[in-house]
């Protein structure tokens, strides 16, 4: 749990996730895609070219496809990612008694609104918890930099910002994930760990740095999860790691999830279980890309059953895990590379 000393009255926790369109309309989906894809840590082109391509070509074209995907994960209370992220914040606040809010990296001004609210409440120390257990430029890093920039805009003398380290191997996160997987896994199943994909040019600068080596952290999560008693006692369980959500022409981490789900039936894997450890809360990449598109590809290729494991979402297990993670925050200079 976060500290319960006298200083805790000055403390709040801010979760940070990617975000979703504000409404299920082409205009809002396009606006969200522009916010997302013009981030240089998502598309690494020079700013003028990146903005021209995204605003003029990519966002208008992708919005028409994306809105159909969002329709599949939109509830009466909005998109799943926003719904579960805020429910998780509420559960953590109930468990800890400390104010917990959830900001969204690509939703217009949500971070600024939340930080202003916390300052008005007299909160001076903010513990930032990215809802990404692993360090990647396009998830953890961009989220932390975004909140830092907003906090500086509000006035550094009024706000102390610290951040949790990547928690890919935290025992309570590992336990939450292992127990979740075990509920739907049988002896002899093939377990597919489908991680968020990133291009190799974002991997190479951090190779060998334990705090930021993304493939190394993914492998550590898989190792620890499989060693947990909830899974280690399941007979005949096989597994592999793959990476999803590729786009563009760069070389990416491999193998690709799409390639593997199409190939596995011919390799004798007639029932597979797929989990997405990169995301705490369900989103397009988990529910739609795996639970709908990958499942369709797998069955079409001759597979018999693809079992999609939902993300940890707002479960009590992950709420307690993240509160424990938040009890040991670091300075931003410790979690971010030098020079950022």
UniProtKB/TrEMBL annotation:
Main location: cytoplasm
Pfam families reported in the protein's UniProt record: Ferrochelatase
Enzyme class: lyase
Gene3D superfamilies per record: 3.40.50.1400
EC number assigned by the record: 4.98.1.1
Pathway: Porphyrin-containing compound metabolism; protoheme biosynthesis; protoheme from protoporphyrin-IX: step 1/1
GO molecular function: ferrochelatase activity; metal ion binding
Compartment(s) where it occurs, according to its Swiss-Prot or TrEMBL record: Cytoplasm
Binding site for Fe(2+): 196, 285
Taxonomic superkingdom: Bacteria
Keywords tagged on the record: Cytoplasm, Heme biosynthesis, Iron, Lyase, Metal-binding, Porphyrin biosynthesis
BP-aspect Gene Ontology terms: heme biosynthetic process
Catalyzed reactions per annotation: Fe-coproporphyrin III + 2 H(+) = coproporphyrin III + Fe(2+); heme b + 2 H(+) = protoporphyrin IX + Fe(2+)
One cellular-component annotation, GO: cytoplasm
The protein, known as: Ferrochelatase
Provenance organism: Porphyromonas cangingivalis
Species classification: Bacteria, Pseudomonadati, Bacteroidota, Bacteroidia, Bacteroidales
